Fold this sequence. Notes:
The chain is an alpha/beta fold and 356 residues long. It is built from 14 helices and 13 strands. The strands form two sheets. Strands 3-2-1-4-5-6-7 form a seven-stranded parallel beta sheet. Strands 10-9-8-11-12-13 form a six-stranded parallel beta sheet, sandwiched between helices. The mean pLDDT is 93.
Amino acid sequence: xxxxxxxxxxxxxxxxxxxxxxxxxxxxxxxxxxxxxxxxxxxxxxxxxxxxxxxxxxxxxxxxxxxxxxxxxxxxxxxxxxxxxxxxxxxxxxxxxxxxxxxxxxxxxxxxxxxxxxxxxxxxxxxxxxxxxxxxxxxxxxxxxxxxxxxxxxxxxxxxxxxxxxxxxxxxxxxxxxxxxxxxxxxxxxxxxxxxxxxxxxxxxxxxxxxxxxxxxxxxxxxxxxxxxxxxxxxxxxxxxxxxxxxxxxxxxxxxxxxxxxxxxxxxxxxxxxxxxxxxxxxxxxxxxxxxxxxxxxxxxxxxxxxxxxxxxxxxxxxxxxxxxxxxxxxxxxxxxxxxxxxxxxxxxxxxxxxx
Length: 356
């Protein structure tokens, strides 16, 4: 076993890192922090207030600034939430920059914010950023602010690494992992399941339309991230066969997924990874999905089916085949390709390389 490391793990401050998770990034960060600590590494997780205290959390000072009437009247004033995130990360990076490099062996930026990227040249110890999203203007501009400084990056999939290639030619691909001890095989069932954030880019209304066309019952699960979208696009589709089960904890969600015939995954954007795919497979539940982003890297014909992006009719036609796929093959794919153990091995190897 390699020597324990001192790791600073920077999380997104948009939501607390705790169950039930607001999204895949929070689930991933929670899982990685727990896995590193279980292996004996000392982890300080810099995260939003209210995050799981069992993760060694150091809460970032996220609070709305007190602004004068004159400042609030400025027509160019940004969203107050932008200001609170900006100053929270600014204080963190100034603190890390003031360190002599002996506090941490490696700093792992797992956030989506531009400031840790822009200020990484000021940090003395090894630091790298995981790319979780397609290119964004804020991150691209932060990368280009480095000048001669050569920053280090990893990416969660080959697809994501490729999308960033014009600016990051050598991102280390380390795929997100799922804890197969928590996402345990289930017996399957008759109904379908869709789970994730209820937002337009995840397309749950398309899953509802496909399930209805296929004559299948569907349970939708997840936090409502866009109330207007839910009320306008999804609520009218709900009935006795298409139901919304709310926002479930990890244990209840894994049980529901394991009791489902197949999971529908309907991204309306190029999914950078697709953690719900790995979670479903770990439960032995085959996946029927749109072929967008990195989903084709995870799914094989033995554990899932892929329809053309946005094609509800094609997705509905594939459901019958997906539900007949072998559940043991789905579970083995999760164990072999996207396990927590493999992800943690890859990250700790990368940490040791950088620390050396």
